[in-house]
Design goal:
With 659 residues, the protein is an alpha/beta fold. It is built from 29 helices and 17 strands.
């Protein structure tokens, strides 16, 4: 262990000098630059002194996302000091992305609805230079610009730089420029304080993760794997549940106003103006002013729908960072978020001095954003800072694979796997035997990117993992893959009396993608085992058989009616939208054949689009071959042909992987 740590420190020290060769851009509108000039200069100096990057101030003289993106890309391609990250300060144009909902965790809205509501506000437009967009105009009098992700574009996210938003508005009666000046002073003070992580707090609201006690218990276990040093500190990881007190709002606000809490993670349902805490008590924007709520946790993770809607005149995330408290950064989503996602991936790197924006770069989705200073970092707990190695993670991957820090190993593993230096079989072995739950989960997620038999094997193993989040991801992955061999581990989860509430929920959802006969056969095989002891074995099996058959036949009749032409055009279009989520694997080829013979261009496009959501399916290769001629068919409507091009990319191995 000591030798490994010494090697790590030498690697990091050797690479630290490289950080100075990189540039960070402060993109700011011209009015904010004029009215908050001294504070912006202080912020730039603080970034240079604490993060080690050369800072350039880039005034937005264009007012157009395309021009701004081109300027950032030129900085990124600079061989002497390439751009590593950017922060968008003030009234910077906001890209509203369309035709890319599958790059979000959960957002699915008919794009025939008003475009302001059915688009995804996303700065991936600015930080992922490989993506290709077609401009669709703007909403006059607003900073909102609309873009379609084209068929020629990559259909996955791999941001080239990290980014963040500092966008104060005049909401609440205070000038946006006064808010900006005050915030920048706070961000600079936080950099100069340079405090280590000593205390973390997490909260769960009504209905979050099926209110599973096991999920919340294991979450603490995961945080201690992220931050091993916290295990020896008093009251280092604290938890609160919505049912702990009748007036949970006051209790939560008091907790978040403590100045000794470094990171707060808030799981609950939400909207742009509300944190839904329980059936009767919620925290709203009005509470910040009316109750004097000034949160002071340095970093807050808002694991809730719409809380990060920075494109609006006001939102929950903005109130956290622009309050008079000491909160510097919030992570939040502009649209709705999936509950079953790995929101904490690589978070342990914060303990080694890696900035929030860098971690977000490696884990972001289309809708998720850093609200506040993306360069914010806690003081590294180790003898040498890790940021330089993570910044140059591709080169450091091999050496960091043996690092004792779980999150460093996870990121290095991801880099090495994507370079083809780690075989899928090795990842399966890590899923089976690695002592760190974070590494086991990382290996499972990487296998989801490549798909195939190793992923199927890993899912069967992970379904019995002792870490709740890994079990949950396995239960969901089994449904997305649908391989017949996974029916047995799936029904075993349902039959086990020790399965947590959330894992059981996920397993029940996955039933609807398997044929009823396959599930029934797996269930009979399970209950035929004499080692399975039950109070009333026959009755229990009968109850489960009723459950699995009902779930497995939930959509089959509707899909069969669609494919046989028995639905009206309106019904068929609605059913095609449902297919983005609810499509049994056994009927995917039938839907593909319908798309090929369909004379209704709108319906054909919707069907092809829906099939693209199922790239993880074990039937994806078959569907891909069926649709391949459509992508180049000159007789096909252009919109259908383009959608086929998108879908073929998403039906590649692992194309349906979900983080």
């Amino acid at each position: 262990m000591k030798r490994t740590l010494t090697l790590l420190l030498l690697v990091l020290a050797a690479m630290a000098a490289r950080a100075a060769r990189h540039t960070f851009a402060v993109v700011v509108d011209t009015v904010s630059l004029r009215l908050a000039g001294p504070e912006l200069r202080d912020y730039a100096r603080a970034v240079e002194q604490t993060n080690g990057w050369h800072v350039v101030t880039l005034p937005d003289r264009w007012g157009c996302p395309d021009s701004l993106r081109a300027a950032l890309r030129r900085l990124y391609l600079d061989a002497e000091a390439p751009l590593t990250g950017a922060v968008f300060v003030g009234d910077i144009p906001i890209p509203m992305v369309r035709d890319a909902q599958y790059l979000t965790s959960a957002f699915k809205m008919d794009q025939r609805e008003p475009r302001r509501e059915s688009s995804v506000p996303s700065d991936r437009f600015y930080d992922d230079f490989d993506l290709l967009f077609e401009p669709l105009g703007r909403d006059e009098g607003t900073p909102l610009f609309y873009y379609s992700l084209t068929a020629a574009s990559p259909q996955e996210l791999r941001p080239d730089i990290f980014s963040g938003r500092i966008r104060p508005t005049d909401a609440g009666g205070t000038s946006r420029y006064e808010k900006l000046r005050r915030y920048l002073r706070k961000a600079v003070a936080a950099k100069r304080e340079a405090r280590c992580i000593r205390r973390l707090f997490y909260f769960t609201g009504h209905g979050s993760l099926s209110e599973s006690a096991v999920a919340h218990i294991d979450e603490k276990r995961g945080w201690l794997d992220h931050f091993p040093a916290l295990a020896a500190l008093p009251s280092s990881v604290e938890y609160m549940d919505f049912a702990d007190a009748p007036d949970i709002k006051t209790r939560l606000m008091n907790q978040l106003m403590r100045t000794d809490i470094d990171i707060a993670v808030l799981h609950h349902h939400g909207d742009w103006d509300t944190q839904y805490l329980s059936d009767s008590v919620n925290l709203t924007l009005a509470d910040f002013d009316a109750l004097g709520f000034a949160p002071s946790c340095r970093l807050v993770v808002l694991d809730a729908c719409f809380n990060g809607s920075f494109h609006r005149d006001d939102c929950i995330a903005s109130r956290y960072v622009f309050s008079e408290g000491e909160t510097v950064v919030a992570l939040g989503g502009t649209v709705n978020l999936l509950q079953d996602k790995r929101y904490d991936r690589y978070m342990g790197l914060l303990d080694e001095g890696v900035c929030v924006g860098r971690i977000h770069q490696y884990t972001c989705r289309l809708e998720e954003h850093v609200i506040g200073d993306p360069t914010f970092a806690f003081a590294p707990r180790g003898a040498a800072p890790l940021p330089a190695a993570i910044h140059d993670g591709e080169a450091a991957g091999r050496r960091l694979l043996s690092c004792p820090l779980p999150d460093a190993r996870c990121l290095a593993l991801a880099c090495a796997f994507r370079r083809g230096e780690v075989e899928p079989g090795r990842l399966v072995g890590l899923v089976r035997t690695d002592p760190s739950p974070l590494v086991r989960l990382e290996a499972l997620m990487l296998l989801a990117e490549s798909g195939g038999e190793p992923y199927v094997e890993a899912l069967a193993v992970a379904a019995a993992d002792n870490y709740e989040m890994t079990q949950r991801f396995a239960a969901n992955g089994i449904g997305r893959v649908g391989h017949p061999s996974l029916a047995l581990p799936l029904v075993r989860l349902l039959a086990s009396p020790g399965t947590s509430a959330r894992v059981r929920f996920c397993a029940e959802q996955s039933l609807q993608y398997f044929p009823a006969d396959t599930l029934r056969a797996a269930l009979h095989r399970l209950y035929a085992d004499p080692a399975l002891r039950r109070i009333d074995k026959a009755a229990e099996m009968q109850r489960l058989e009723t459950l699995v058959v009902r779930a497995a036949t939930r959509w089959t009749d509707d899909v069969a009616r669609l494919c046989s032409g028995a639905m009206t055009p309106r019904q068929a279009r609605q059913q095609a939208d449902y297919l983005r989520i609810y499509l049994p694997h056994a009927q995917m080829a039938d839907v593909a054949r319908l798309a090929l013979r369909c004379n209704d261009a709108e319906l054909a496009r919707a069907l092809v689009h829906a099939l693209g959501w199922h790239g993880a399916s074990w039937r994806a290769a078959e569907v891909r071959e069926l649709l391949r001629p459509l992508a180049t068919d000159p007789a096909a409507p252009p919109a259908v042909r383009d959608e086929a091009r998108r879908t073929l990319k998403r039906l590649t191995p692992g194309g349906g992987a979900r983080p």
